[in-house]
Amino acid sequence: MAEKLVLFAMAMAMTMMVLISASAEVPTIFIFGDSTADVGTNNFLPHSKFRANFPHNGIDFPHARPTGRFSNGLNSADFLAKLLGHKRSPPPFLSLIKSSAGVKKHSFRGISFASGGSGLLDLTGQRMPTMMKFGAERVPTDDLHSNLTNVIPLTEQRKQFKAVHGHLMAALGKSEAKKFLSKSLVFISTASNDIFEYYHSGSTMPKETFISTLGLAYEKHLKALLNLGARKFGIISVPPIGCCPSQRIYNSTGGCLEILNEYARAFHASIESLLCKLSSEYKDMKYSLGNTFEMTINVLNNPFLFNFTDVQTACCGAGRFNAQSICDPKANLCSNRNQNLFWDLFHPTQAASNLAAVTLYGGEPRFVSPINFAQLAAA
Ligand SMILES: *[C@@H]1O[C@H](CO)[C@@H](O)[C@H](O)[C@H]1NC(C)=O
Ligand SMILES: *[C@@H]1O[C@H](CO)[C@@H](O)[C@H](O)[C@H]1NC(C)=O
Ligand SMILES: *[C@@H]1O[C@H](CO)[C@@H](O)[C@H](O)[C@H]1NC(C)=O
User: Fold this and answer.
1) Spatial separation of the C-alpha atoms in residues 302 and 300, rounded to whole Å
2) What residue range is the signal peptide (predicted)?
3) Is residue 41 assigned to a domain?
4) E strands along the chain, which residues?
5) What is the CATH number of the domain that holds 167?
6) Per-residue pLDDT tens listing for the chain (379 residues)
7) What's the 358 CA to ligand 3 centre distance in angstroms?
8) Rounded Cα–Cα distance for residues 89 and 37 (Å)
């Protein structure tokens, strides 16, 4: 009897091990988008105005190292990657190209192409948006359009991914590379910067035209990725960007700049129908759409539920809402960084980024649909 129990226990243990090793399979992740996911891409653009590789950024990163992340520590891409079994976000493509072995090796684990300041449109971030013009950071007008090294636009991010695709084809052969890419996760977090620039440039383009321009651009990017073999997409939509500290300064009452939130909502609706359409054209496509708008509004309405005591002011900055300067060594720093929703004038703190990632990963359909990122990874 005792012997049987031991055997049974051993069989159980072995079953458990199989289950654990199956669930411990770490998926390959490719990350595209803007500063919400940038883990140091722009450090490799010497003339970029969108950089964060200086203190107080990184103050809560191991060894208090500023890495280029627009955060006191990790960002949402890092936390998502951690939830999926990685140490943190995969490294920037531009950090790997100094050796040909670098890109090859990481093609199998994951690479980040995300670049702060970029958007869906090629010109986004290449001109200095009005709201980023502070003092010495102001760019002379003759610099407009003349210098395309400020950010890596999504089109260029896709070209870099194409190089990765080439490595995989060479290493695995066509059909295995296709299989490999179809299992990899593609995360994209973009479009906030397009909306900021559209609004603050005083464009006369009607809102509907602008939103459909963004939708068409997204469709073009997604189709290009699909045609290279990507099949699993984690899409992160635009949060209520009118509630960023940098935008509250445009509202005399200190409330959110509502018009920007309306653009964010309209954008979400257009991407939702785009993804639905694409998944009927590409039968094996799977996606999760993260509704960071709903997620953030929920936190703004119930800050204490999430242990935030300040959801309006930037932790690091200066001036009204700490939002009239970027986060640099001269900026003020809040006393409890875990209790602020915003790190700087645009970006969430590490604590808020963690909350966002946990919600994208395991959240209910109100926040991420039709499936969450955990289900996407398992699909
Ligand atoms: C971009 O701007 C920087 C400084 O503003 C300048 O040194 C560099 O030559 C410019 N590059 C191009 C391609 O114009
Ligand atoms: C400013 O914020 C208030 C709430 O405090 C809001 O009712 C109003 O619509 C906002 N104004 C603009 C221009 O967004
Ligand atoms: C808030 O803080 C309390 C006490 O430190 C903790 O038990 C709780 O899990 C926290 N809630 C969240 C959402 O982080």
Assistant:
1) 6
2) 1-24
3) yes
4) 29-33, 110-112, 185-189, 232-236, 286-290, 310-314, 316-317, 332-333, 340-342, 368-370
5) 3.40.50.1110
6) 455 555 555 555 544 444 444 445 899 999 999 999 999 999 999 889 999 999 999 999 999 999 999 999 999 999 999 999 999 999 999 999 988 789 999 999 999 999 999 999 999 998 754 444 433 333 334 444 445 579 999 999 999 999 999 999 999 999 999 999 999 999 999 999 999 999 999 999 999 999 999 999 999 999 999 999 999 999 999 999 999 999 999 999 999 999 999 999 999 999 999 999 999 999 999 999 999 999 999 999 999 999 999 999 999 999 999 999 999 999 999 999 999 999 999 999 999 999 999 999 999 999 999 999 999 999 9
7) 14
8) 9
Number of structural domains (the chain) is 1
**Which residue, judged by its Cα, is nearest atom 9 of ligand 2?**
258
Query: Are the C-beta atoms of 362 and 286 separated by less than 8 Å?
Result: no
Range of the domain at 152: 32-136+144-378
Q: Which atom of ligand 1 is nearest to the CA of 146?
A: 14
Which of 139, 141, 149, 150 for a ligand 1 pocket mutation test, highest count of atoms within 8 Å of Cβ?
A: 149
Whether 307 is in a domain gets the answer yes
Can you give the pTM of this predicted structure? 0.89
Distance CA(325)–CA(21), nearest Å, equals: 48
Contact 117, 38 (CB under 8 A): no
